[in-house]
Amino acid sequence: MNKRTRLFVLLAVLALCFVFLWPSISWYGRTPKELQQLALGSTENIKSYSELKAAEDVRAIKALVKGDENAALTDDYAWLKKDVAKKYKLLDKKLPSVLTVKDVVSAYDSELEFMNVFQSHYRDEILKAKKYYENSVKLGLDLSGGMNIIVKADLDAAVASMGDAVATENVSEFKKEAMANAIENLSSRIDKFGLTSPVIRQQGDDRIYIEIPGAAQADAINTLIMGKGILNFRLVDMDATNSFKAYYAQNPASTFNAAGELMDASVIPEDCEVFGVYTKDEYGLDERYDWLVVKKEVALDGQHVKSAEVRADEFTNQPEVCFNLDSEGAVIFGDFTGAHVGENLAIVSDNKVKSNARIQTAITGGSVSLSGGFSYEEANNIKKVLQTAWLNVPLEVESQQVIGASLGDEAIHQGIMAIILGLGLILVFMLIFYKTSGINAVVAQILNLYIMFAVLSAFNLTLTLSSIAGMILTIGMAVDANVLIFERIKEELRQGKSRAASISMGFDNAFWAIMDSNITTFIAAIFLSQLGTGSIQGFAVSLAIGVCSSVFTALFVSRLMFDFDTDVLHAKKVSIGWGIKQ
Questions:
Q1: pTM over 0.85
Q2: From start to end of 421-541, where are the E strands?
Q3: 229 by DSSP, 3-state: which?
């Protein structure tokens, strides 16, 4: 490979690394703290914030119009001018040179359309920051602070609570379903609590690992874990629903306050409540797509549900959700459905409507079927909702570790200082011992760290204190490769060879010694990363990445710098140590 090609390869690698690092740079260096907090919230919380913030802004602009309709649009809403210009162009109207609040409001056909512009602005801004976070280097709990919890699920107790309902040969399958349901419930509760980017995954057969970055109250988390979801069946008031949705379409900005409560309670009957209708989005999170007004009185409590499954209708072959009630629930449900044939019944879980079905006939006997053109995915989601009522899996917090944010900040500071001190001492040593050639080693070290962080960002890996330790160790190993090369060059120079020949032979003779030592280290790091857990795994991963990047910088970048001095600067001698005669 000639020198020009090597230069292009190096520039391409550096450019690619910058692309990988850009999300991390944008998230940690360019995103305000307030926006970071919003972006770390759940998708549902982002949507709720965007709606409430949009409603506030629309009310504020309406107040400005009422006070002085000819007032100029303030700088806070300067971003709105672009969208207003598009609206005027569509309407084939000339855009005023000075936009007034009246001009802005009149560009939109309805208040709902106007509100949607604000909502989209805030949502896109937060989701853009969230995308930066998702593609950036994550900080582990030991650096960012937070909670680390391991929860044990008592699956044997769950089997025992079902009695004879679970056959012996189906126990294993039941435990898998119970475990999946427990994880689903915890995800729903913690996400609803508004916590930031929680990690919830199964660990082994009966344990759940929960990692919550940021500040969180241990008591509140334990309450969420030990608690149980609330599920019930309620009668739907379709007339009130249609009336409410018509009102909301006309007054979207003044329907709910910042707490999500109705600003005017008279828009629905006194004996009713309004809830959002939710489905699972592409990320598996609850997403509201409609509103429903239901009676406050509970028709049937979820505790009467005993089992649920998805079947195919024997006539249409369409999926339907079937569930069974206990004897008391069967009587209550039979009487209720008989009295409300032709009306709608909603399944409400944690104040979210998950299903809205029409009562076709009185349902007696305790066996109920829900159908309505569901897909299998929708049917399974409803089944999971019903399972929260009857599948009782006792949970116990087995271990809990809380790391304060201040300790995380201190760890980050100490890690950064360790890296800077390590680089600084290496710089001093290499400059004293190897003179000008030591600069090549230091530049290689800086590029080594640059590439390591880029790889971490590219694969969305988590940076922990042990990862920083791996990086510091990599710095020492990378310097060792440069020392080998420099000593080989010095040997060639002592034999009276020219600069170009000494450099070429030095790199060639040191090549396999460097490769052998780094390959063995890489193999050890790979085994550690696969067999180790926690801090050991973080150390091994950063070490493996560092080994690869250090070989590249020592053999490729350092060689290119020597060749640049030889061919471009026309250097005849090598400043590489004391007592070397050239």
A1: no
A2: 462-463
A3: coil
